[in-house]
What we know:
Layout: H1 9-12, H2 17-27, H3 37-41, H4 45-54, H5 72-88, H6 98-102, H7 106-125, H8 134-147, H9 166-175, H10 191-207, H11 216-220, H12 224-239
Helix pairs in contact: 4-5, 4-7, 7-12, 8-9, 8-12, 9-10
Amino acid sequence: NNNNNINTNFAEVGDPDARVYSLWMNSLGVQPPINNLQENLKDGLILIQLFDKMCPGMVEWSKVSTERPVPKMKRILNANYALALGRKCRFSLVGIDGTNIESGNSTLTLALVWQMMQFHISKMLSSLGKSVTDDDILAWANSNVSKAGKGTQIKGFRDPSLSNSLFFFDLMDSIKPGVVNYDNVTDAATKDDHLANAKYAISLARKLGATIFVAPIDIVEVRRKMIFTFLGALMAATHS
């Protein structure tokens, strides 16, 4: 299992999302498993596998060069095909082409990968019968908490109050009353308390059946993308 020792060059260029993306990809069973995000995405094959796993039947494998190692020109063709699949899914990919992926341009590659992960979470949410927006997720979370008679509310996925995880506990306790043992929740006086709360929140979310790719530090630092994935996964689990 490569999930615990993921080495990513992307992390070195200042994007800690790389670890989350790697965990997400490995949870979908890509082959070979990701152990170096930048290197593993260059030939386009993992990206194409992900589209195939998210939308079975979407990939025309006759258009893909699968023999490894893939020669450079074919790596670029594979990457261009992955981008074409992304455009089919209405991703915003202006100014990105296969050479950017093949050369390991982290910013442009992660622009694609983030949209893929967001697309996958939205697909998990489509069990609700309509496309779910950020506002829908926010309204769902706040109304569950207030219906349960709890006092916390949030203004958005960047709300600084999320740092202590108390909103997440109230939300999960409103989804499944009694699931939170509030004796295990700290008063979040220190950063260590915040981390302990976030760790406990993640373990409870998994207990509720949510697919979580978020680390405690993502919650403590209120990283918008990760808060979106956390609440989106909770909402999907609740409705599945």
